[in-house]
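Here is an idea for our session: we take a single protein and study its fold together. To get us started, please write out a protein record for me. Start from the sequence, derive the backbone structure tokens from it, and show both lines together. Go ahead whenever you are ready, and we will take it from there:
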Amino acid sequence: MIRLDREGDLWVVTIDRPEKANSLTEDMLERLAGIAEDARDARALVLTGAGKVFSAGADLDAARAGLAVSPLWERLSGALARHRGLTICALNGTVAGGAMGMFLACDLRISVPGAKIFYPVMKLGFLPQPSDPARLAALAGPSRAKLILMGGAKATVEEARAWGLIDRIVEGDLLAAARDLATDTLAATPDHAAGIKALIREGSVSKDLHALQPLLDERTAPYMCLCTDDRNPLDIGEHGHLDYMIRELIRLGTPPLAAYRAATLSAAEAFGLQDRGMIAPGKRADIVALGSLEACDARMVMAGGVVLSDAAFAARQVIEPVGRGSVRAPRVSATDFRHRGNRVETDVIGIREGQILTDHLHEDIAIAD
């Protein structure tokens, strides 16, 4: 009921249970998650359905038996979101319920005309999968996310396109349109495709700068941004923050304007900060004056139109810590972690050296006293 067609580096996955509106059983969901995890070598992955409905979500009998709250949904959407290539959800018809997770996790969403999008968790008494509300809000905005999740709205794909949930409505051959969208990614190297989707992170745990530097130039700078969200204050004091990343990129051969674009406008666009990123009317006057582009040595810093100085920094409002003592948890002991039996199959977080990304592993672990 899940069909996989491999067309070289393009994988096409079809949910093939049209007599049941492509509703998903546990086995089907397991198969979808497995394909998404195994598709590391596929440069493009397309999800579609057979018949006139993409998927109605969980099979009703399976939902009542516990599938509605299964971690398999999150496993599937997480694998799609982590995919290094291009993922496309090609809606051959309506998408509903738990199937929204895979729809939202894809890079692109295209649809035939007349399909509908809805997520009736409020009506059915379930919670959405953990990652779905944030992805929905990022695409359609918080109000429209609430309209769908809490208001029970059934959006047409024509409405959804205006909201940002649908990228293209296809009048003709849906899969041909998906293949056409994947053409450039299929022609690129896997690392190039991965870099276009990436934040270049250079912090204290995640160190991607040197690996991804060759991908950053004037052509790719609009699609890549610099990120230092896990940088330790000691590293900032010794080496610097974004200024260090810019200097290092330029030293390694990145064109200076590409490095600065990735640190400013591209980052603002990636995080939806429409009021900053460039010097222009209507933007915040956050400006740094440099001694030279190559050295990235700040000589003057202006925030919100105000020039910062040591005196101004010292006079800033100090925010008192909040939340201390707010966690109330019962005490635990070793017996709380005891497992009956001699083996357990469990989820394991796989650590990647020098990366903030982790792997979702399944391990059969032997237990001994």
Observations:
- The two ends are 43 Å apart (CA to CA).
